[in-house]
Amino acid sequence: MTNSSIFSTIPYMDYFGAFTLGVSMAADSMCASASDGIKDNRMGKLKSVLIPFSFGFFQFIMPVIGYFLGYSIKDYVVDYIPWIAFGVLLFLSLKSFYDGVKEHLERKKFKNEDNLVIHKHINYVEVFIQDIATSIDALTIGFINVNQTIYDAMITFVIIGVVTFILSFISLLLGKKIGDKIERFAPLISGLIFLCLAIKFLIEAI
Fold first, then answer.
1. What is the pTM of this model?
2. Residue 51: which of 104, 128, 108 has the closest Cα?
3. What is the 3-state secondary structure (H, E, C) of 41-67?
4. Chain centroid offset of residue 17 CA
5. SS3 label, residue 32
6. Residue range 76-112, pLDDT digits in tens
7. Which one, of 58, 82, 46, lies nearest residue 131 by Cα?
8. Taking a C-beta distance cutoff of 8 angstroms, is the pair 148, 156 a contact?
9. Predicted confidence band at 55 (pLDDT cuts at 50, 70, 90)?
10. Which residues contact residue 168 at a Cβ distance below 8 angstroms, ignoring those fewer than 6 apart?
11. Using CB atoms within 10 A of its CB, is residue 154 exposed (0-12), middle (13-18) or buried (19+)?
């Protein structure tokens, strides 16, 4: 068998379509990354890479899980996915608002609020919760691609993960840039971002 005949049996891989899908799937992760950068604008270089990497990894692994489980769980979980995302993101939103109120009360203890430095940081448990909330809907990508060959499906999922990592990293850096200027309002902004994401999934669920 010639090389041309071998490659003629491989289904056409739509790389541009996979890239476009990756950009679409990365939107929620970009918002969460920007929020983290705003809130924890003094995070170190390693953390600045690990957070976007975790978003990219989960956007890759969720479709993989959906692909291999396929139709065996699709009918049981697909209707609940938006509700789960809504609940988790609403929790993150309320937590951010709570942190903002707590910080405001701490500032009020001082006559000169500008002299108060409050070091905010994002812990990895919170990042993990964000990962789940922003990627759980990617399970459906695995369901949709279940008829693809494993090779094509994995390439698609890798592209989604890489695109998510790159865009999330850029978003986090931009968040850190403006974080210094809006540091006092960071918890409020973070809470509003997660609330908007929660409302988005609520609309999908309804």
1. 0.78
2. 128
3. CCCCHHHHHHHHHHHHHHHHHHHHHHH
4. 20
5. helix
6. 777 888 898 899 999 999 988 988 888 777 767 665 5
7. 58
8. yes
9. very high
10. 26, 29, 30, 32, 33, 51, 52, 55, 56
11. middle
